[in-house]
Design goal:
The protein is α/β, with parallel strands linked by helices and about 850 residues long. It is about 55% helix and about 15% strand. It has an eight-stranded mixed β-sheet with strand order 8-21-20-19-9-16-18-17, sandwiched between helices. Strands 1, 2, 3, 4, 5, 6 and 7 form a seven-stranded antiparallel β-sheet that branches. It has a six-stranded antiparallel β-sheet with strand order 10-15-14-13-12-11.
Length: about 850
């Protein structure tokens, strides 16, 4: 009597509920966005906010309440930062729901689909090709090939039979299996080795690195300068405790670029929100900046240039003549030493009916669910008239799948180069001819042997060629043209036949589409490095080679973006500077990507680049304006400490200048479209814009103070002069930094100038501005007259110094290269 088939029931609802109450749920710490608590703390508890609170306490201590205005600006910045990040969080969380990883779970004898964070301990889950393993598990039934490179760094796939353990974070490259969850949440292996393993890869950001460099320098110098400034004014020049405190607070406030971090955050979050409206999920904030700097874009053909809707066009059944010629060729070249003429003559000739039967049974035996298999399944209805004894699921590394049937031998479907790595030249030429027409080519092959291994038999015989096609995306041509105009080198990297890939690339207008190569010819890393410089189209690329190509491009100094939708793209996506996944792709691909295109719409790529450019270009200009204040405040503080008597500003005076010339206009112009190509020397550009105006303000303030003292002008009048001239110079700098002047910029800048003048008139008493005597008016007029000339002179001087520095740097690099070359020759 036949054994009764065991029914798979999984956990009952009561068992699930008990585990939920015990906290045995697959909740993890990894998240693309910060929690509300983290957002509030991250925007309030900062080094500079702590400094500002100390400065507030100092001002309150001396009883000058009107000089506490700066704290309201700080509070406004903090609130705006929190609101914007919360808005972004809500938008991203809503979009993330659409791409949340799900898994099939057996509960109460039924198969249900759940989010991975709903899995409980001891759940039975179904894993298949393309899935990222959500929790540590043990294979109960079936067979998998798993890639654990995200955990171990080893890129080879591992076979997992029944009883084998699976680690969370790895991904399935082939097969299908029923597995039992043995760890959940923070008990998972991936959570144990690193708390950040599930978070998205944080790529280096040039913008963030440069901003951090500025903030680091300020953080180091601000406290020593504050102590020195107070000591000089209070103990040496004895200006009085109140004036010493207020002047010191004014100097330190000038050094702190309090709005720069806010503006960067706001600009980034606004960009993320704009892209969210275009159905683009940004999983790493600074990746839009990285994409704006990309100079090489690697594309996967399927799902990017094409829609991924593959269909079988026709099938070419191979006749006896072709097969006989190929077999004889193999025999004569000693490539198959055991092949005999008897085997050749005994090879069966299949009919169309035979083909339908063979393909239908293959479809019924395999569980592959990639686009190619689904297209075959659509053409050949699955049947089960043959008895399958072994199956080989499709793998991106093998590039073939197969089934062994009882008394019928083994049948394989795959790429001709991988099924027949040696010999079969006539067949390869026939396939090559079809590939040049843009077809995707699969070969159906047969062996009399019953195989239980994944390795191919030696007596494999081709039976038919299956011709498939994919629809080219209508927007692909315009998108590639955009990147070509922007100077981005586009490379198409695919697992398909290189001739097929090249034909499609040519149709969409890819430059150098005829420069293609079969990656099976690339055996070493050096060959791959040379190939990525020479070719634009790569076919028959394995997942490991995709990663090696990205690594080679990065080592050659390129900033690389990679798009993909399949599990074979994961290794390359993790290695790229910026990774973009299609929402229609595998869970493993979406989980490791920085950007997910929710509609799988490649045409939004230019929008992502433009948002990145808007952020970099506008933040560069904003940073220049903030750095002007920082530089002249540091220089005037040093001047006061070493030779001066007192710092010439009070906090409220700098607050007005900062608001009208820096904070408000830069905030308004951060949202302005600015899609020019990115200047890669961010810090140099910022310094080039900031240093000349800062030096001009420093010299005019020092000149006013020294000349005024010589002319016996009262200190209050000199303070009024320096406040007016500093505001005037700042407004000139605003126009120069934001040139050329667009209509929008003109409105903003002229409005700020008007507001500044109104503040000077209406707030005269509040700002402690005095009416000027004749000598003070002369000093004021002289500065207003000569400051434009001085600013131009500072700009010219700075560019001369920068040019000299570049020449010296070039000579130094050239000399170092010669020494290195000579050392290599001697070695």
């Amino acid at each position: 009597m036949a054994a009764k088939k065991e029914k798979i029931t999984g956990l009952t609802q009561a068992q699930v509920q008990k585990r939920i109450e015990e906290g045995k749920v697959n909740k993890t710490t990894g998240n693309a966005t910060r929690s509300y608590k983290q957002i509030i703390l991250g925007n309030t508890v900062t080094f500079f906010n702590i400094i500002n609170l100390v400065l507030l306490a100092m001002v309150l201590f001396v009883g000058s309440f009107k000089n506490t205005m700066f704290i309201f600006i700080i509070l406004t910045n903090t609130v705006i930062g929190i609101i914007q990040e919360i808005r972004t969080k809500k938008a991203l969380d809503e979009l993330a729901i659409l791409t949340a990883s799900q898994v099939q779970v057996v509960r109460g004898g039924k198969y249900v689909t759940l989010n991975v964070d709903e899995i409980v301990l001891d759940d039975l889950i179904v894993l298949k090709t393309g899935d990222q393993i959500p929790a540590d598990a043990v294979v109960q039934k079936g067979h998998l090939e798993v890639n654990e490179s995200l955990l171990t760094g080893e890129s080879d796939s591992l076979n997992k039979e029944e009883g084998a353990q699976l680690f969370s974070g790895s991904f399935v490259t082939s097969g299908k299996a029923l597995c039992k969850v043995i760890h959940v949440g923070e008990d998972n292996y991936m959570e144990q080795i690193t708390k950040e393993a599930k978070q998205f890869k944080r790529h280096d950001s040039v913008l963030k690195k440069n901003l951090n460099r500025i903030l680091k320098v300020i953080s180091i110098i601000i406290i020593p300068l504050g102590i020195g400034l107070f000591y000089k004014q209070y103990y040496i020049t004895q200006v009085g405790r109140t004036d010493a405190v207020l002047n010191t607070v004014a100097a330190l406030l000038g050094m702190i670029p309090e709005g720069l971090v806010l503006l960067t955050s706001v600009a980034m979050t606004l960009g993320v929100l704009r892209l969210a409206k275009r159905r683009t999920l940004i999983q790493e904030l600074f990746c839009i900046e990285t994409l704006a700097r990309v100079d090489v874009l690697c594309l996967d053909k399927t799902g990017t240039l094409t829609e991924g809707n593959i269909c079988v066009e026709r099938v070419e059944i191979l006749d006896d003549v072709l097969r006989l010629e190929d077999k004889t060729e193999e025999k004569n070249t000693d490539l198959i030493v055991n092949q005999t003429e008897e085997t050749i003559e005994g090879s069966p000739k299949i009919t169309q009916h035979d083909l339908e039967q063979i393909m239908g049974n293959i479809m019924g035996a395999l569980n592959d669910d990639n686009a190619t298999f689904l297209a075959l399944k659509e053409r050949f209805a699955p049947i089960s008239t043959y008895q399958a004894v072994n199956t080989i699921p499709f793998s991106s590394d093998r590039k073939y799948s197969g089934v062994s049937f009882k008394e019928r031998g083994s049948f394989y479907i795959g790429a001709v180069q991988f099924l027949f790595p040696k010999g079969q030249e006539a067949l390869k030429m026939k396939c090559q001819a079809f590939a040049k027409e843009g077809y995707r080519i699969l070969v159906l092959a047969h062996s009399e042997q019953i195989r239980h291994e994944v390795e191919l038999p030696k007596n494999l015989e081709p039976l038919a060629i299956i011709l498939m096609s994919d629809i080219i995306r209508p927007e692909a041509s315009a998108t590639l043209q955009y990147f070509r105009e922007q100077g981005v080198n586009v490379k198409v990297i695919s697992g398909d036949d290189p001739a097929t890939v090249a034909a499609i690339a040519k149709k969409v207008g890819l430059e150098n589409a005829d420069a293609y190569i079969d990656a099976t010819l690339l055996k070493t890393e050096k060959q791959i490095a040379d190939a990525v410089q020479q070719y634009s189209v790569f076919g028959r690329v394995t997942p490991k080679q995709k990663k090696q190509m990205v690594v080679a491009l990065k080592q050659q100094g390129h900033t690389v973006a990679m798009t993909g939708d399949g599990v074979n793209d994961v290794l390359a996506l993790k290695e790229a500077n910026c990774s973009i996944a299609m929402a229609s792709g595998s869970d493993a691909t979406k989980n490791c990507a920085n950007v997910v295109l929710l509609d799988s719409d490649f045409s939004v790529m230019p929008d992502i680049v433009n948002e990145g450019r808007r952020v970099i270009n506008n933040i560069g200009l904003s940073a220049s304006m903030f750095l002007i204040k920082t530089i002249f405040s540091v220089l005037l503080a040093l001047e006061t400490i070493f030779v001066g008597r007192a710092y010439p500003f009070e906090p409220i005076q700098l607050s007005i200048i900062n608001g009208c010339a820096v904070a408000i206009p830069t905030f308004l112009m951060t949202i302005e479209p600015s899609f020019q190509q990115v200047d890669y020397h961010f810090f140099r550009r910022v310094l080039r814009n900031a240093a000349p105006p800062a030096l001009t303000i420093t010299l005019t303030v020092m000149g006013a103070m020294y000349v005024g003292e010589w002319l016996k002008c009262p200190m209050d009048m000199l303070t009024t002069v320096v406040v007016l001239t500093t505001g005037w110079t700042y407004m000139m700098a605003l126009q120069k930094v934001y040139s050329p002047m667009t209509p929008y910029r003109k409105v903003v800048i002229y409005a700020m100038q008007t507001i500044y003048l109104i503040c000077m008139i209406v707030g005269q008493d509040l700002l402690e501005l005095e009416s000027l005597n004749f000598n003070s008016v002369i000093i004021l007029l002289a500065i207003l007259n000569f400051s434009p000339m001085l600013l131009d002179g500072m700009n010219t001087l700075y560019r001369m110094i920068e040019s000299k520095f570049d020449k010296c740097q070039g000579a130094f690099d050239k000399g170092r290269a010669k020494i290195k070359k000579k050392a290599n020759v001697n070695a």
